Amino acid sequence: xxxxxxxxxxxxxxxxxxxxxxxxxxxxxxxxxxxxxxxxxxxxxxxxxxxxxxxxxxxxxxxxxxxxxxxxxxxxxxxxxxxxxxxxxxxxxxxxxxxxxxxxxxxxxxxxxxxxxxxxxxxxxxxxxxxxxxxxxxxxxxxxxxxxxxxxxxxxxxxxxxxxxxxxxxxxxxxxxxxxxxxxxxxxxxxxxxxxxxxxxxxxxxxxxxxxxxxxxxxxxxxxxxxxxxxxxxxxxxxxxxxxxxxxxxxxxxxxxxxxxxxxxxxxxxxxxxxxxxxxxxxxxxxxxxxxxxxxxxxxxxxxxxxxxxxxxxxxxxxxxxxxxxxxxxxxxxxxxxxxxxxxxxxxxxxxxxxxxxxxxxxxxxxxxxxxxxxxxxxxxxxxxxxxxxxxxxxxxxxxxxxxxxxxxxxxxxxxxxxxxxxxxxxxxxxxxxxxxxxxxxxxxxxxxxxxxxxxxxxxxxxxxxxxxxxxxxxxxxxxxxxxxxxxxxxxxxxxxxxxxxxxxxxxxxxxxxxxxxxxxxxxxxxxxxxxxxxxxxxxxxxxxxxxxxxxxxxxxxxxxxxxxxxxxxxxxxxxxxxxxxxxxxxxxxxxxxxxxxxxxxxxxxxxxxxxxxxxxxxxxxxxxxxxxxxxxxxxxxxxxxxxxxxxxxxxxxxxxxxxxxxxxxxxxxxxxxxxxxxxxxxxxxxxxxxxxxxxxxxxxxxxxxxxxxxxxxxxxxxxxxxxxxxxxxxxxxxxxxxxxxxxxxxxxxxxxxxxxxxxxxxxxxxxxxxxxxxxxxxxxxxxxxxxxxxxxxxxxxxxxxxxxxxxxxxxxxxxxxxxxxxx
Length: 824
Known about the structure:
nine-stranded mixed β-sheet; five-stranded mixed β-sheet; globular
């Protein structure tokens, strides 16, 4: 037997078991350190008896109190994992297991006065005995024994409440059929807001103590959910598939959201927006809500059969979210939003030696968490737009409706979905999918004018003969009137449209954001900035940035100079944020230290002037945060501290408590002689108890003394010190700040050595986040060599984690190469 759930075991149990039903009870003490006792009753039908049955439970033997099988106490087998029910205790047909246990703590996410469960992808088995695989959907019945002052949320409504002896017993209605990763509950000291919106009652649980912030946001939060539901019902032709629709806003949640049926969980900070939110913040919130709502159909109603297809639920949630937000934001350029949201993130993985296909092999479910990442969340939506363009919007929608009807409340694979999209097999989607979905990387496009008529050549960077058929726009800048031409790439050598310029500098590739690849680019085209549409401006910045990283044309210092011209001119917040994010990366990591110091006064002066000229409060806040993030001279840092301390006000600039916290952390790093005073001041002014706990945790990572920081880093080897993962990632960012990379190089090797344990004990995004936070700001030969030697010494290392390391290591490798070039 193997730890975890192997694909072979999952297939065996899926064929053997039917009509699974769970009755779960948890007794949750108020003390977060005390054990949680539980009992689970599992009813199921067995197609054929005669062999032992594996029940998943990753725990110590002492956590199993009693096992009763079909009314008799069982002599079960257990060695940490799995729980093995003997064959002679089972029978063909109906069976019942009753197991008393002590719950595992990792997936319960227990805090001082609340908890929330996260069982995706295979962590239900860490909390209680279960058949933990997505294609054994079951009905779930939950009861909770909690402190009387607490409230709770789960997939079913509360149908009975009893209070006695300062305890509350809640009985929830049965919900299902659901996969184990979609079952959940939240319990603790929460406030509840109930609203009836468009005839549907929704409940929101939260811990926000700022009444003004709640009042500013609550109406929009409810309405965005209602709008998303209405759109999805119309698009799919299927009413909301589940009876209940509530959500909890959880502080420091490790994900933006999680689509639990009837009880969506959100990172509270993502939905409670501060005053004067930017367009980007508003869009991100709307997109997150639409994404989690779309999962009710895509993932919850129809679920992947095995987690190698987890990307299907994510791509549809993202793809539909991009469509849903349009009605809510008619003033927004949604094509621009899609491009700046997806292309940079997807390229950041696909340009690396660790690039992975959208669909990946998965031998064991305990590795499923590493399938998540930007390829699923960003490349897959780009692929899906190409697929929709290939089939046509009407045919695509009808195929989606067929798919949802055919597999309603069941499970499906990606090939089964393709069969529903193209039932006649006319589009040869399987061959198309082999390149776009099953293989990693991006094509490299080159302009070839040597043969007379200009041609666009597509090259496979792996020299494997692959070819990515696709469509995209081509803007010809040579003519008196710019022309947007359409390119339909059907072969590795594609003639440009008739009359198109033969000079790369006169052409803007992927001008409509539909295409995907490394395109020719000329940053000098910023001279035509105001003649370009917002989406075309985004294409120019994205293409030029990728060429700079790939070919050093132009050099980072020259690229930064062009970025400053863009920032001086641009008012669109989405485009401005794209330019500012590139600026921060180039300034802090790609420039040699001496060049950065020389450039700093000019950059500070420009950003300050640009901030004062911002047209609204949101733009002023966006630009001030950029100014503060790159502030390096003593005068600039002194002024940022004055703004932080409120000694100096700036008209129209409103900073939130979270803004001030991050300002204080940045100042503590940049002004070590003032660190203690700054952090003490921030602690005194932080009212929210969850934010105060965050800052208290982060203090050692901000300490001026390298010995204190090192001791904190070494403490992360203990899993209990990594319990709140978003705090850990903030701490790593502090430890590896660009101004501290010389001292934090020593952490790289030990950090890599912890990765397998982090993968085993942490949530799905944590290993990749750990690596990014550790490596993103480094640029030394020593760090590159440390990573390389780590992998060379471990030829049999976990393949998914190896890819994650290679993806994160791309940043220091490119930075090292670019910093070593003559700067001109």
